[in-house]
Structures are given as C-alpha cells and as structure tokens.
Amino acid sequence: MPQPRVRLIVTGDDFGYCSRRNRGIVECFKAGAVSNASLLVNGNSAQEAATLASRHGIPLGLHANLSEGLPVAQPLRLGLSLLNKRGVFHGKMGFRDILKSGAIKLPEVDQELRAQVERFRELTGYLPHHMDGHQHVHVLPDIRDVFANVLSDYGIRFTRVPIEPGLRDCHWISHQLMAFYREVEEDAFSSMHVFRRHGIRWPDIYIGLTTMGKHMAVQSIQAAIGNATASQRLKENSLDIAFGGEMGSVPGDGSLTMELMVHPGYPSVPQEGGCGEGPDEFSQSRERLNELKTLKDPRLLKYYEENNILLCAFKHL
C-alpha cells in the first residue's frame, strides 16, 4: 500500500456545545468524514460528548474556551477579570478588547486553562491528545505564553496554528471577517516561536477559515487542500516558518500533515445548548448543517481516496 501523500486531520470543533452538534459530529465520524474532535468542556452537552466519543472511538482534544459562557474554575465565577457584568466570559471580540486594555489577569487565565484540562480528564479518563483555543484565543499576545506553559506542564504535544495558505486571495469573504482573520493570522505567526520553545508541535498546514459555514462546499475544500499542497514548495525558502517550520509534525514517511477545522452539526434549538448562556446565532443557523452535508458528500470522500489523502487524528502523528 503506497504511503499517503497527505495526512489530513479533519477536526470537528465545539464538540459538547449541544446535543444537536454532538449528533452531527458523530454522524460525520461514522461516515469517515471527520477524524478528530475538539471538546468544549464548559459546553452544556460536554458529558454526553465524552460518552459518545468513548462509545464510537472518536479521538479527542481540548477546545480551550476563554471567550464564551461560564468558566470551569468555580472561584472565577465570582466575577473577576475574565467575566463581564453579566457574569460570563467577555465574548470573541470583547475578550480581545479587554486583553488589549491590560485588564485581563494572566494568573486567572492559567487557573481556568488548568481547570479545563482537569475537567477534560474527568470526563474522558485521559489527557487531551491536542489542545487549541475556541475562537483562536490561544494565539493572542500574553495568552499564548500561558497556554504554552500549560501544555508543556501537562505534556500535551500538539496545538493549532491558524495560518491558512491563500487566505488573502479569497474575495468572497467579507471585509470585516477578513480583517479578523488577518489579525488571527498575525497573532498565530507571532505565537509560533513561543510554542516551538516549549516543544509544542502543529501540522504543517492549517485550513478552515476559507471553508467555514456557508463558504464550505466540496469545491472549496478541494481548492483549499490544493493551495495548501502547492505551498509545500515553500519549504525550500525562508517562508517555510509560516507553514509549520522545523517543529511541524511531519511523519518520517515524507507525507504532508494538514488540519482542516470544521463545525458540522444540526442547527441548535434556541435556549438549548451553548456554554451557559444559550447557543449563539451561528449555531442556530443552517451553516452548521451545510458543513455536515458537505463533509459527508461522497464526491469529497472519493476525492480523498483518489488523491491519496489519509484522514487521521493528532494521536496518530
């Protein structure tokens, strides 16, 4: 059997957000369309997700959450720097604004991240195979340093570095969303030396920003993988660092490692699910269902097979 040209980790994010999300990720895994999942331990259906993962053999990592819902560490629920006036996390952009103001207390970040790792262990019986950040908070300034220390202390070897080849050429992404994605990429680029210093690895290529929600289609995934595979040629010059560099997790067989971030599921029901404050608008939209249907599309699964792309998980690297 020939060695795979690409080892593709298809990670279903937000596992545990609600029962309908859990159902979608399990369906995709059983169909061979998702190979890995990232668990939100403060999600309303986290216990159910852990049980389903055990039952179906779904490899799990931790989707560390500092931006949505309630903290896991009970002392932090008293209303300290991580929470807004309503007693929940500040939100995707609110967290970034408060961090820039200097009001976030990093010891509280450390306390919450460690509490989430321990909660993951309580739910699953083992430490996560990988750990990334919900809404990419793990690559933010200062947060990245705390995050790397926690991973190093627990011996968690893999994370996500959200730098996507060809992102800036995607004209279909709105100006506002592209501005956010560019900021994420800049933060991710600056985080790599921190992760590398702690011996933390990541796949050679990340994709998922350009194929998220309504933008996901069989053709868009194929194009993203094609662009990413072509970028392998950059390994011969100084731009190599932008795609994983020498601390990437390329196995010895010479294949390219790649992570595709996805969010499949059935639309959340209002007031059911979330992380302690109900499901967000994206979760209640049909964009999650579009991802589910696309990932299970026989044309996409055939594309993987015909192009020698092997779906795997972080624990297989």
From TrEMBL:
Record bears the keyword Hydrolase: yes
One biological process GO term for this chain?
carbohydrate metabolic process
Q: Which cofactor does it need?
A: Mg(2+)
Q: Which GO terms describe its molecular function?
A: deacetylase activity; hydrolase activity; metal ion binding
What are the record keywords, sorted? Answer: Carbohydrate metabolism, Hydrolase, Magnesium, Metal-binding
Name residues in a coiled coil: none
UniProt lists the family membership as follows: Belongs to the YdjC deacetylase family.
**Known role:** Probably catalyzes the deacetylation of acetylated carbohydrates an important step in the degradation of oligosaccharides.
Full protein name = Carbohydrate deacetylase
**Protein encoded by which gene:** ydjc
